[in-house]
Amino acid sequence: MITDRVVVTGLGAVTPIGNNLNDYWTALQQGGCGAGPITKMDASRYRTRFACEVKGFQPSEYMDLKEIKSLDLYAQYAIAAASQAVEQAGIKGVIKDPYRAGVIFASGVGGLLTLQDEVIQYAKSDFKPRFSPHLITKMISNIAAGIIGIRFDLRGPNYGTVSACASSAHAISDAFNLIRLRKADLFIVGGSEASINPVGLGGFSCMRALSENNDNPQIASRPFDKDRDGFVLGEGAGALVLESLEHAKSRNAPIFAELVGCGMTADAFHATLPHPEGRSIFQAMARALDDAGVLTEQVDYVNLHGTSTPAGDPPELSAVQKLFQNNLEKLHVSATKSMTGHLLGAAGAIEAVATVLTIRDGIIPPTINTCNIDPKIEVKVDLTLGKAVKKEVKMALCNNFGFGGQNASLLFKKFEG
Predict the structure, then answer these.
(1) Same domain? 201 vs 324
(2) Which residues form the domain of 149?
(3) What's the rounded Cα separation, in Å, for the pair 33 and 162?
(4) Could you tell me if 388 and 302 lie in one domain?
(5) Are 132 and 117 in contact (CB under 8 A)?
(6) pLDDT (tens digit, 9 = 90+) per residue, 230-282?
(7) Is 305 tagged catalytic?
(8) Which position among 262, 332, 342, 398 bears the catalytic label?
């Protein structure tokens, strides 16, 4: 029997527009953009030569040199975001039963940089089988969850989720359901990605998924614009602390919002393209609302997946407008990837964080760079273009969809006792 309510008590973020929660949220409200020429590698021979990089990240603020050397960058981002969330939630040292506290942390590709570097060294050594003893533990996409569990002595369910760009949303959904089923009291959840490297950039570029607006990277991510030409690669991590309401109240925890529903579906259509009618996107959102017993008229805001791709934007907006057809005058939507770029497996986490903050502060972050709406897209809803909007938000949906046709929607609510 599902009985427990689930609340959000801690948040953390390492993003291209801010390496902590306050900086991230301030930049979102101001319409800041994290895109610029790539500095992590020589991208001069690539079709796309810009990305949304994390800037000024100092792993030594969160771990010692030995740990830094033993972890891929994606795991370093994860530890940083999780540490921020743990500090805000105030859970360190106060969990009475560590077997009822767990970690579910996502990554779309895990330690891609580590794997790339090891393969390069393998080739340079004339293919002699000499590899780093840290190769496997740095590469695997579940290691972030494992290390976070070790760091905070959380001995409950611990694993990673992998579903491309829906990975974090699935991690949050899993934790939500486990708490509701009383299998655990608390989870650190989220996702992390660090794919701005030759393999990551080259792979996405060769499949023509990325924007090639090299002359104007700051305006390249422009969801629903007629000149959009692909997503902008991003990196970073987001983390949330989820608790049962009973557990949170027992320790007088800060409560930022309540997670009340989730919906998960599959397109069963194509490896990389969404179904053009958005049929399963519609169902993911509808099932999240049904899970919570919420009417469409009660929803104030949708944080869109909104990747700025020609194929991806129209079906999502169509599905949103179909589902909320009786609520379009009241509803606001926005695509925060216009500012952060696409963080792949971490997208769902940083966007869930943004959705919670939207509810907490009553500020809807904007969709930036969208100046000329694609005439092929019928827009019936407020896209929150250009500037943030001050408005009370009691109920908000957060969408994420991944290659493979894997969809997840999360429904957050203003906490009311």
Answers:
(1) no
(2) 7-250
(3) 27
(4) yes
(5) no
(6) 999 999 999 999 999 999 999 999 999 999 999 999 999 999 999 999 999 99
(7) yes
(8) 342
